[in-house]
Amino acid sequence: MIPVLSAFIGILALAWGLNVAALDGGTASLPWLVREQGLYLSGLLAIGLMSLAMVLATRPTMLERPLGGMDRIFRLHKWAGILAAVFAALHWLVEMSDDVIKSIYGRTGRPAHDEFGGLYELLRDAGEEVGEFAIYLVLAMVVLSLWKRFPYKFWRHLHRAMPVFYLLLAFHATVLAPPSYWTQPVGVLLALLLAGGTVASLIALTGRIGRHRKVQGVVTAVSSPAPDVTEIVCRLDDAWPGHQAGQFAFIGFERFEGAHPFTIASADHGNRSLTFQIKALGDYTRQLASRVAVGQAVTVEGPYGRFVLGRQDHTTRQIWIAGGIGVTPFLAWLDALRAAPAAAPPVELHYSTRRAAQDPFVERLRSLCAELPSVRLHIHDRAAGDDLTPERLAATATTGQRAEVWFCGPRGFGDQLKAGLARLWGRRLRFRREAFEMR
Q1: Cα separation of 177 and 372, whole Å?
Q2: Cys staple from 249: which of 18, 19, 299, 302, with CB 3.0 to 4.6 Å?
Q3: How far apart are CA 75 and CA 16, in angstroms?
Q4: How far apart are CA 276 and CA 355, in angstroms?
Q5: Residue 338 pLDDT greater than 70, yes or no
Q6: 263: buried, middle or exposed (CB in 10 Å: 19+, 13-18, 0-12)?
Q7: Spatial separation of the C-alpha atoms in residues 406 and 421, rounded to whole Å
Q8: What's the pLDDT tens digit per position in 353-363?
């Protein structure tokens, strides 16, 4: 994620820099030139990153392979939006700095304000007013997105207004960009970004995101293997393209609530039947068992993701680590391996659970692994003091042995394991994880 955003920002800054290098400063003084170019650069970065966020919001499956999966696309979308808001705030601060510069250096050397007259001048005035209003709305939206306690069902509807805010800012950028930009590389780049962001906004506003990947189905079974877990089995119609073990899909049971993403906890057996293990993590998932019934219609969009069986490097030691509900993709992996147990690779599967005696997945894992002799299952019961640590994993490593770790679970747990294993194993380790997060 960091390399992609850094490269994107670098390209925008380079395009801006080429324009600056060709400028003739004239009689403008340095403080005023710095303010002017700071205004242009911060605005370019803000609208550029927001355009990127809008394009990524359309769930472009063609970018799953180069970016590492839809989970990372969502994460990139989130941070592109956050950085866009940061640069938008900086843009506003630079705009407000003229009074400070005047009080210190006076008006001498201030770049002349271009007078265009007619309709164009009216558009620029409107763009300035609209831009300031939209910036406030975008900043408020980012704050709500980062505030995890703000209910998802309300955030989701507010978030749907983001394309409108983007179109307002796109208008602001179009009419207030220096006219000289449009004949230079920076203008070409800006035009492409605005076009992409505008098309993405229209796709979102017309409800076309993921439309071609949606299929209809019916709920065939609902159960509660544990008080905080709901198991739902769905059978989809003939349009379902099938899925790879470990992928996820968006499931919609109610129109107002919208679709939520869940990992598919079963392999593809060719019968278009999907199983979902859904943990109660919010208001909606806590009530799911009582709100969903057998025979109920369901809409499924997908599949998405590249945390899939088949991408493993079997020349390295395979370590699969699941924490809590992060066990779901591994349930699908093990289910798929049952079709050819003799071909299953040697694997060490570690499952960390809060209380093994009350965990419905423990017996499920044991049952699946009993059919797979090459898979060694390790249950880590935290209630009994059996914590999974990097040191415990590294202690079993053979000198010089390379390892590939596949992790799905709580973010903090994953960060701790990744940092510890990187310190102990160094370059012999490759750590792969599902980075899915809607907010």
Answers
A1: 63
A2: 302
A3: 27
A4: 21
A5: yes
A6: buried
A7: 12
A8: 999 988 999 99
Which amino acid, residue 112?
Answer: A
Q: Give the separation between CA 158 and CA 150, rounded to whole angstroms.
A: 11
Bond before 303 cis per omega within 30 degrees: yes
Quick one: tokens of 218?
């019916």
Q: Yes or no: say if 297 and 216 are a contact pair by the CB < 8 Å rule.
A: yes
* Token pair recorded at residue 165: 């805010």
Tens of pLDDT along 146-178? Answer: 676 666 666 777 778 889 989 999 998 998 888
Angle between helical axes of 30-56 and 70-95 (0-180°, round to 10): 150
Q: pLDDT tier at 129 (50, 70, 90 boundaries)?
A: confident
- Give me 128's structure tokens: 């300035």
Contacts of 422 (CB under 8 A, 6+ apart): 429, 431
Burial environment of residue 420 by CB neighbours within 10 A (0 to 12, 13 to 18, 19 or more): middle
CB of 92 within 8 A of CB of 132? yes
Contacts of 40 (CB under 8 A, 6+ apart): 16, 177, 178
Q: How far is CA 349 from CA 127, 288, 308, 318, in A?
A: 57, 30, 15, 8
Strand order in 260-263's β-sheet?
A: 260-263, 248-252, 297-304, 214-226, 229-236, 273-279
CA–CA distance, 322 with 330 (Å, rounded to integer):
8
Q: Which residues contact 105 (CB under 8 A, 6 or more apart)?
A: 29, 31, 32
Q: What is the DSSP string of 4-69?
A: HHHHHHHHHHHHHHHHHHT---TT--HHHHHHHHHHHHHHHHHHHHHHHHHHHTT--GGGHHHHT-
Mean pLDDT of the chain: 87
Chain centroid, CA 142 distance in Å = 14
What is d(CA 152, CA 173) in angstroms, rounded to the nearest whole number?
Answer: 31
Q: What is the greatest pairwise CA distance in the chain?
A: 82
For the residues of 245-280, what is the DSSP string, one character each? TT-EEEEES-TTT--EEEEB-S---SS-EEEEEEE-
